[in-house]
């Protein structure tokens, strides 16, 4: 369903992605891991058509994404840092994103789930970081897209919201979706991910299950597996 073929990307002299090839065909949760600056967000933005690779091709459903942007309506995206005008209210941004995407949306269920109802008339600029993130989650999950890209989705969330987000991710997975996630919280990745892709120095250092990664590094949990890779 998603196929990256020999993707390369440099920013100035910095080679961020160097010949990355990756196939994701099955429904499930794939975690893109790697140290800060290893190119996780860049890779996801290439999939979303927001960054153009220097070389290589990205395919969605066997269609080269550079040929048409229509595939983007099949992807829900929670950016690492969402930037919306501070003077818009929560209900205004929900209405605006629904209008722009022009697809069926169901924000009410999510507004209720994350307790965002009491903030609907508040301006985004006056919300706490965690509440903003809850609004971003509503904006991402209110469309029924077969692919969901979550870049550091837990940022600022309290434990109650975190549990709800995990339940939501599981529900979406159960519908047969592909969910791509980045996170530095290894316990979350260990709990959620069916597969991990570990980026290091521009290449895919490892791709497989967490069990395989733990076995490869002779460690008992993901946190130590990653630490072993980074500081052998
Ligand atoms: N538009 C840009 N212009 C210049 N450099 C960029 C740009 N976007 C990303 N970079 C650089 O590319 C590298 C990879 O960035 P990216 O955001 O993809 O990393 P990441 O793995 O998502 O990092 P983190 O874990 O910190 O979120 C970084 O060194 C970053 O500074």
TrEMBL record:
CDD domains in the record: ABC_DR_subfamily_A (cd03230)
Keyword ATP-binding: yes
Transmembrane stretches, start-end: none
Keyword terms, alphabetized: ATP-binding, Nucleotide-binding, Transport
Signal peptide bounds: none
Species of origin: Algoriphagus halophilus
Domain ABC transporter: 2-226
Protein name in the entry: Cu-processing system ATP-binding protein
